[in-house]
């Protein structure tokens, strides 16, 4: 089994949506009529790489520990929901258990790609999962964001 498993948050923008109107929780991303604010982070250097903390592949330790990123949230007034939109790249077989957390709170699972013939992690891929984030995990001001994989 390859133990250098990792995934990346590509060098684009990581966005958190704060939804300010009522919407069904089965929906993801802003819907027509929603009022929302975006707070983003541009990834640079090796900020975008997330590696399995238990990786044993040669060179994997060069990417550990995983970076802890800052994301400034200017306003949470009136927010009723938050979502994280990730520009995610993957493609190492066996890379499962992708997770993130804000401010040291509980890890939140990033779902696997489901549009492939078998397990999504077995294919080179780039997609944009949208993940619900509990508002209680966020603060107004500078938030820390970290990722992990298994």
Describe this structure in words.
The protein has 150 residues and is mostly beta strands. It has one domain. 0% of the residues lie in helices and 37% in strands. The chain is built from no helices and twelve strands. The strands form three sheets. It has a four-stranded antiparallel beta sheet, with no helix packed on it. Strand 8 and strand 9 form a beta hairpin. The chain starts with 5 loop residues before the first strand and ends with a strand.
Strand and helix map with partners:
Blueprint: E1 6-9, E2 13-19, E3 36-42, E4 49-51, E5 68-73, E6 81-85, E7 88-90, E8 99-102, E9 108-109, E10 125-127, E11 130-133, E12 141-148
Antiparallel strand pairs: 1-4, 1-7, 2-3, 2-6, 5-12, 6-11, 7-10, 8-9, 8-12
Briefly, what is this?
The chain has about 150 residues and is an all-beta fold.
Task: Name a few traits of the molecule.
150 residues, four-stranded antiparallel sheet, globular, 0% helix
Briefly note the structural class of the backbone: mainly beta
Report the β-strand fraction as a percent range. 35-45%
Report the radius of gyration as a whole number of Å.
16 Å
Total domain count: 1
